[in-house]
């Protein structure tokens, strides 16, 4: 039986510099090819939901899209990024292959409709992060909004559920429920180990647990993985505590592919 390829959405949390972005993308391309994964490079041009008012937010729309286009042109990789406002959809859709809706905005109907319409105009996909406050069954409503606005090419991403203050848990049953409902499901291993606001004015996390959850999710039978990575997570201006170091990605990806193949026997 032919095993469907596992999609990997990966990259740094936020665009820092062109040089670093291209270096991470090139290494991920090599690692994904070696492991037999389909790679979509991810980096955000703006982190609009940072904890502290003075936190770094990224390169901005114009510069960020320029760098993402360079990743596409120089390395031949599809790319994705977060979009937070309706006005960002059209310029982003001209560049990125997947428009990503952040979890906190997953119920914003006008934003979903704008993403779906832009995706339909430009032949793009939409990936919606499942809010930390939603049940798996609630994602059916997200899909209905996208489809009604003309987008049938969508993904839903699990990224943990709020469990008390500053803690997230992952109910693996949710992945199976969303799959059973007919949705293509991605698991976000690194944001699922966040400790929101855990550092006071920044998000904390337990990145050592991200590979553990990734292995479990692949065993369930998901369609793709979302993993943020960085050569030096401690130096990243956003979500460093959750990320998997780039040097550790190769062995992990090879292990995940073996689990994926076993899950489809």
Outline of this structure?
With 265 residues, the chain is α/β, with parallel strands linked by helices. Helices cover 38% and strands 18% of the residues.
What does this protein look like?
The structure is a single chain. This protein is an alpha/beta fold and 265 residues long. The protein is built from eight helices and 13 strands.
Gross geometry:
globular
Strands across the major sheet, in which order?
A: 1-2-3-4-5-6-9-12
Secondary structural class? alpha/beta
Order of helices and strands: EHEHEHEHEHEEEHEEEHEEH
Number of helices: 8
* Strand coverage percent: 15-25%
The proportion of residues forming helix, as a percent range, comes to: 25-40%
If you compute it from the alpha carbons, what radius of gyration comes out, rounded to the nearest whole angstrom? 17 Å
Biggest sheet statistics: 8 strands, parallel, barrel
Strands, count: 13
- Terminal CA distance reads 8 Å
Characteristic terms for this protein:
265 residues; alpha/beta; eight-stranded parallel barrel; two-stranded antiparallel sheet; 38% helix
Topology at a glance:
Elements: E1 7-11, H1 18-35, E2 38-42, H2 61-75, E3 79-82, H3 86-93, E4 98-101, H4 109-122, E5 125-129, H5 139-148, E6 154-158, E7 161-162, E8 168-169, H6 172-180, E9 185-188, E10 194-195, E11 204-205, H7 210-220, E12 224-230, E13 244-245, H8 249-263
Parallel strand pairs: 1-2, 1-12, 2-3, 3-4, 4-5, 5-6, 6-9, 9-12, 12-13
Antiparallel strand pairs: 7-8, 10-11
Helix pairs in contact: 1-2, 1-8, 3-4, 4-5, 7-8
């Amino acid at each position: 039986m032919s095993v469907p390829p596992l999609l990997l959405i990966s990259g740094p949390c936020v665009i820092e510099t062109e040089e670093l972005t291209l270096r991470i993308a090139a290494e991920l391309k090599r690692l994904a090819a070696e492991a037999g994964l389909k790679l979509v490079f991810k980096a955000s041009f703006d982190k609009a939901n940072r904890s502290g008012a003075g936190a770094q937010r990224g390169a901005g729309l114009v510069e960020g899209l320029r760098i993402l286009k360079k990743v596409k042109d120089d390395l031949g990789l599809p790319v994705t990024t977060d979009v937070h406002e309706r006005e960002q959809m059209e310029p982003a859709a001209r560049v990125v292959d997947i428009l990503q809706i952040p979890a906190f905005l997953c119920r914003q109907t006008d934003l979903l409709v704008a993403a779906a319409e832009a995706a339909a105009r430009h032949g793009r996909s939409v990936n919606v992060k499942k809010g930390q406050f939603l049940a798996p069954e609630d994602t059916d409503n997200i899909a209905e909004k996208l489809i009604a606005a003309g987008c049938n090419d969508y993904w839903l991403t699990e990224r943990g559920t709020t469990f008390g203050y500053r803690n997230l848990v992952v109910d693996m049953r949710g992945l199976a429920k969303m799959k059973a409902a007919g949705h293509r499901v991605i698991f976000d291993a690194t944001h699922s180990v966040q400790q929101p606001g855990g550092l006071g004015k920044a998000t904390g996390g337990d990145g050592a647990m991200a590979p553990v959850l990734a292995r479990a999710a692949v065993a369930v039978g998901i369609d793709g993985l979302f993993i943020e990575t960085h050569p030096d997570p401690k130096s990243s201006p956003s979500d460093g505590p959750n990320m998997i170091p780039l040097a550790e990605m190769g062995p992990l990806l090879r292990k995940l592919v073996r689990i994926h193949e076993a899950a489809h026997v």
